[in-house]
User: Fold this.
Amino acid sequence: MARNPVFDGGLDLTDDSIKYLGIDQSYSGFAFTLINEDCTLYKTMVYTSPMRGVERLRDIASFMGLEIFEQAKNIKASAIEGYAYGAQMAHMAGELGGMVKLELRSWLYDSDAAYPLLVAPAMLKKYVTGKGTGIKKNQILLNVFKKWDVEFTDDNAADSYALARIAASRADTAYEKDVIKKLLDPKYREYPLT
Assistant:
């Protein structure tokens, strides 16, 4: 597998069609997917920064700017995977998540997309598999392929694809609808105080 794989599902990032953004912020493979309104076209990229510490954060921010925001037009909504509390590297995940939120806000201004849906890992698993716990990474890859006929060789890519579908509020099954309905609660989006 390539170090920084690209999965091209035919989406032209530069056209004016409505797009939805899913981000799986991970140091081991920062992935994003942009998907069109009816979820038939997509582009997914995975980036593994060679840097460390604050330079890694800066490198990933630069990647986001170059590969997402300087190219993609008309991003209507976004979703990011929430934190896995108690994870071994939780403080680093918090730094990366904060940087992602700042980049979204800086590039997308006051649009809804600047304030992503925060999707807990268990909710993401439930959206993809119907179960929120006891799911391994390879099951996400398999279920993304079985449900949506989209093949990835990277679990971060599969997560970002599912997050883009969530950002688009795409729900076909009862458990997908349940996840989307729960995410409509304002606590899952960090809108500014008015």
Observations:
- The mean pLDDT is 91.
- The CA atoms of residues 105 and 137 lie 30 Å apart.
- Residues 6-186 form a domain with the Nucleotidyltransferase; domain 5 fold (CATH 3.30.420.10).
